[in-house]
Write a structure and sequence with these properties.
The structure is a homodimer. Chain A is mainly α. Chain A has two domains: 68 residues, Arc Repressor Mutant, subunit A (Orthogonal Bundle); 152 residues, GntR ligand-binding domain-like (Four Helix Bundle (Hemerythrin (Met), subunit A)), CATH 1.20.120.530. Chain A contains eleven helices and two strands. In chain A, strands 1-2 form a two-stranded antiparallel sheet. In chain A, helix 4 packs across helix 8, helix 6 packs antiparallel against helix 10 and helix 7 runs antiparallel to helix 9.
């Protein structure tokens, strides 16, 4: 194994073991190199890798206090990797649809139970623009925004992060499918708009079961509508 | 933004847009530096970052064909980041439990519908050792192995990857809780063993609803049993 990977793994082990927590400062480069018996260049490379992943921030503080600290991974770091994973891993489309149904049924039900007025307004907002007969590209962005708003409204951060990552990974494949609809596009757009509207209404009414069921039906029916 | 991040983002955009696919070769360092108007050092640093994340492999081929190719992200890359994310992001424990219930109810039902004889044997295997009164550390490893085997038996790779990552992130917090049980440990161990056994039996019987319900109850009841 290359030396920098060894350093990355030791840092990760300590995070998983709870001995390194958010805000903790890593030992200086020189000490870490001595502890792990690697070169200082390997430690520097490991720190750059961890920084690129959002696990640490370097150059925090100044003078003798300057150093590298463990940072809370931003949700963006996770959704970014999950998006790449979905794009590269070539998951069976049926598996992705099943995963979306499971996550988003749950998000929609949670949203019906918990959505704040502000979160509900964020769910409603893309619908206004969807009703104005947007083009396929705009529609796809509004559609993505709707599903993300529902996930956020559910209030479970971990479920929302997973939902958002998968929906964003689908943005491009869905756009491609919309582009291949030809003359069917206006009819499909009306149908998809109506389904989104019904989901919103069930969430607004606080009807958990109906919101979850409508979301699950919508994901399945979009798949059938859009499949080539 | 630092130059290497610019390079990383351009490569990721092309992957998400589908213009770079698994097995595609990236342009040589010199050309990429010229295209993106950054230094060759920045391109090298970006490649190291992408390689550390499993997005590309370098040094593929030899002579004039040597280069960096886009690789299928291994599941391990995703589960690793999700594990770190759960460890660092400090999700509310109720949110993690709700996410587990959702994912694992679905995995258990899928396993009841689809498990091959080999996958079912992998679910049964940790139970044998659990019955032999293992210590807390061994028990926790067997418990993790059981939940991973159920996720794998469900046959949905994306759902399994998410399930495994979250369960592995829980390995250490759960061990800590087991260690704090004091005299209650033998009783808790018997109870948890019986719950795992019942889930296995429902999966083996092909009863999707019962397998899903028992898994959901088990995750909730473990939480109550182990909570300090």
């Amino acid at each position: 194994m290359r030396a920098y990977k060894h350093v990355v793994e030791r840092v990760e082990e300590q995070i998983l073991a709870g001995t390194l927590k958010v805000g903790d400062r890593l030992p200086p480069e020189r000490d870490l190199a001595a502890q792990l018996q690697v070169s200082r260049a390997a430690v520097r490379e490991a720190m750059r890798t961890l920084e690129a992943q959002g696990v640490v921030r370097s150059g925090v503080g100044s003078g003798p206090d300057a150093g590298t600290v463990v940072s809370a991974l931003p949700s963006e770091a996770l959704t970014r990797l999950l998006r790449l994973h979905v794009a590269l891993a070539n998951f069976a489309m049926d598996d992705v649809v099943a995963a979306r149904v499971m996550l988003e049924r749950s998000s929609a039900a949670l949203a019906a139970a918990h959505a704040s007025p502000a979160a509900l307004a964020a769910v409603a907002e893309p619908l206004q623009a969807m009703a104005a007969e947007p083009d396929r590209h705009e529609f796809n962005d509004l559609d993505t925004a709707f599903h993300i708003a529902v996930a956020e409204a559910g209030g479970n951060r971990l479920v929302a992060d997973m939902t958002i990552a998968i929906r964003e990974a689908m943005r491009l494949p869905i756009l491609r499918e919309l582009e291949q609809l030809g003359d069917r596009w206006p009819a499909v757009r009306s149908r998809l708009y109506a389904e989104h509207r019904a989901i919103h209404d069930a969430i607004a009414a606080g009807d958990e079961t109906r919101a979850g069921d409508l979301m699950a039906e919508h994901i399945h029916s979009s798949r059938r509508l859009l499949a080539p």
